[in-house]
Amino acid sequence: MKNPILVTGGTGYIGSYVVKDLLEKGNTVRLTVRDKSKKEKYQFLKNIAKKSNGTLEIWEADLLKEGSYDEAVEGCDSIAHMASPFILNIKDAQLDLVDPAVKGTINVLEAANKSSTVKKVVLTSSTVAIYGDGIDMRNQHLSSFTEEQFNTSSTIDHQPYPFSKVQAEKKAWEIANNQSSWELVVLNPSFVMGPSLATGSQSESLKFMADMLSGKLKLGAAELYFGYVDVRDVAKAHVFCLENKAEGRHILVERVTDILSFADIIRAHYGKKYKLPKSNNPKWLVSLIGSLFGLSREYVKNNVGIPIQMDASKSRDKLGLNYIPLEQTVKDMVEQMESLK
């Protein structure tokens, strides 16, 4: 009988697939939630558990409450720490993003330190912990971003979400390097897309696709380049790292492309069904109207019209990932959104 695996953020967009995959492989999963009485948040996972060979346990813990993970962690072999807010429209960056990301990581990893059983922690970071702005690649004289880089350009005022992710990951490495009872493995997914298991998910990925399909960008796209990866591949990477030997950081990306090319993939499947952008807006115009889309002038200056590259060779070689093509990801995502209308 294997010891349980603790999963934080397991009701989220990525986390729910990790929980599902672990349950289907017969594991006992300890899912931490802030409030057990809000059963509607995790009922869909209990339904998945019923059809699987695994067991789902629900435990209460709070990212911001010191010591609240200690009890849930004790007795577990490993931890998948995924709980961290991914919200772009925020009122207070410190309270809404940085504190939950950093303090949550400290609380979970300190619980691992106190535990007598934990051997491994898999942390969900992001490619935004590797770079903050597209121009960073040029400034650092790189041909592509790799696991060697850490984001140095984001601050609490400029790009607070990337700032929260790099602060949390650096804190995780600091804690991991000061002990020897468990090992840390980090996954750095790019922009995660694909169908959602979580009902009512507030993921920015789903909002981005909803904006695209609603015609919000029909008058033209900003020439912004992102790495994209399927949520099911991100989950697969987590499960692999929990079950097998893995080391260091891993960029997860199927490809890097711009928003217009992303729109072209939707158009190739659905023709004129959706009002999609057909051209890029000039940079000066994006700078002028960017605030309507939450883009600061500094962000526009450092990212629009600046291509980037990401090297995912380590995740392909070491984690055995054969990435789902973005075309399939987009198709599955749109089909699900249409079915929910």
Task: Please characterize this protein's 3D structure.
With 341 residues, the chain is an alpha/beta fold. It has a domain at 5-197 and 227-254 and 309-323: Rossmann fold. It contains 13 helices and 10 strands. It has helices spanning 15-24, 43-50, 70-73, 93-114, 135-139, 160-177, 204-214, 231-243, 259-270, 283-289, 297-303, 313-319, 326-339; strands at residues 5-8, 28-33, 55-60, 78-81, 120-124, 183-189, 191-193, 225-230, 248-252, 255-258. The strands form 2 sheets. The chain has a 7-stranded parallel sheet, with helices on both faces. A 3-stranded mixed sheet has the order 7-8-10. It is globular, with a radius of gyration of 20 Å.
As a whole number of angstroms, the C-alpha radius of gyration is: 20 Å
Q: Structural class of the secondary elements?
A: alpha/beta
Alpha carbon gap, first and last residue: 43 Å
Strand content: 5-15%
Shape: globular
CATH class of one domain: Alpha Beta
CATH superfamily of one domain: NAD(P)-binding Rossmann-like Domain
CATH architecture assignment of one domain: 3-Layer(aba) Sandwich
The CATH topology assignment of one domain is Rossmann fold
Number of helices: 13
H/E series, N to C? EHEHEHEHEHHEEHEHEEHHHHH
* Low-confidence segments: none
